Amino acid sequence: MTNLREITRQIAKRTTQLGYDAWEWGEGVAWHGVAETAVKLGDAELMSAVVNWIHSHKDFQPSGVRHVMPGLAALTVHQATGDKTALELALRVAKMLETLPRSVHGVHEESKQTPVWVDYWYEIAPFLTTLSKVTGEERYSEWAAEQSIAYLLSCWDAKHALFHHAYYDLINQNSQWFWARSNAWATLVMVEMLTDLKTEKGLAAILRNVLSKQAAKLAELQNATGQWHTVLDQPETYLEPSASIMIALAFRRGAKRGFLDAKYSALADRAFQSCLEKVDEAGNLTEVSGETWPGDLVHYSMVPVGVYSWGQGFMALAGLEWMDDK
User: Fold this and answer.
1) Name one GO biological process term (predicted).
2) pLDDT tops 80 at residue 326
3) Rounded Cα gap, residues 177 and 179, in angstroms
4) What pLDDT shows up at residue 287?
5) Which one of 8, 26, 63, 85 has the lowest number of neighbouring Cβ atoms within 10 Å?
6) 323 lies in some domain
7) 102 three-class SS
């Protein structure tokens, strides 16, 4: 792999080979990265792979928030190719989402026993704003704005300028620790909502304020390597490249789009280069933490690391972002 374009394509190609077949949130991240790479590189092989994945689920009936993220990949494919099955699946996802109960703050959830994960803010809101662009229906953007407010109420900690991993309706409180990947989801979705919801002036002002405070705190906590610890403010926990590349992507986009100071581009570059060193010759982003539930520090430190769909998808998206700059 001699240049960033080839590295990014290799990451996406490898992602298609790793068996991410289910219609689930993690697989959705992976195929989101593949779909965007296929479009931006004009790569027919990659596009064929993601179309085949979508068509393998043409009769799938989504039933929970974990099934929303693949809809974003489907919308990318529909926008690029006009594929009707992709749009039908995305509309089916939106219809399902409308039927789900809501948390005390208004977040869609599967049950009161299921925590409100801040991760799903990114998985729901960009899907809705993209669906609004595709269909011309403003209600989807309004829905994304409403969900954004609900997630801020659920997980933002103004005192510490970071997001909690989860909120529990049953006990009306947040999980204790500031997990890196949950904060990365939040940073990235705020940049996307500031981009997509410009007309929501009040919400945009709130998002700018929260983003600026969180970004300043994340800058303070960035490790000398350029990455972030899996529990952000606990340096005894390991460095985690999937969260790091997501924060890097958010910082780069935020600075380019005028939502963050230009100094964040340099911090993003450090993180990107550090994560790029974790990509092996096959195109795997290595040392990524597995699916993680809230727990104590020992729990966070014991989550196994390896190659995971969320690392693959966001590493491909970051490659595209830095490739565009060059």
Assistant:
1) carbohydrate metabolic process
2) no
3) 6
4) 98
5) 63
6) no
7) strand
Residue 325 located in a structural domain: no
**What's the number of domains the chain is made of?**
1
Q: Which residues contact 88 (CB under 8 A, 6 or more apart)?
A: 58
Find the domain containing 47 and state its range. Answer: 4-318
Question: Which CATH number goes with the domain that contains 242?
Answer: 1.50.10.10
DSSP assigned state of 108: B
Structural tokens at position 211: 């983003």
Exposure string (b/e) for 133-165, b if CB count within 10 Å is 16 or more?
ebeeeeebbebbbbbbbbbbebbbeeeebbbbb
User: Does some domain include residue 271?
Assistant: yes
- Mean pLDDT estimate for the chain: 97
Joined together, the tokens standing for residue 75 give: 């919308």
**Contact assessment for residue 299 and residue 17, using Cβ atoms and an 8 Å cutoff:** no
Question: Alpha-carbon distance 180 to 170, whole Å?
Answer: 24
What pLDDT is stored for residue 1 in this prediction? 43
Amino acid at 34: V
User: What are 235-259's pLDDT values in tens digits?
Assistant: 999 999 999 999 999 999 999 999 9
* Burial of 3: CB neighbours in 10 Å, binned 0-12, 13-18, 19+: exposed
Answer whether residue 324 is part of any domain.
no
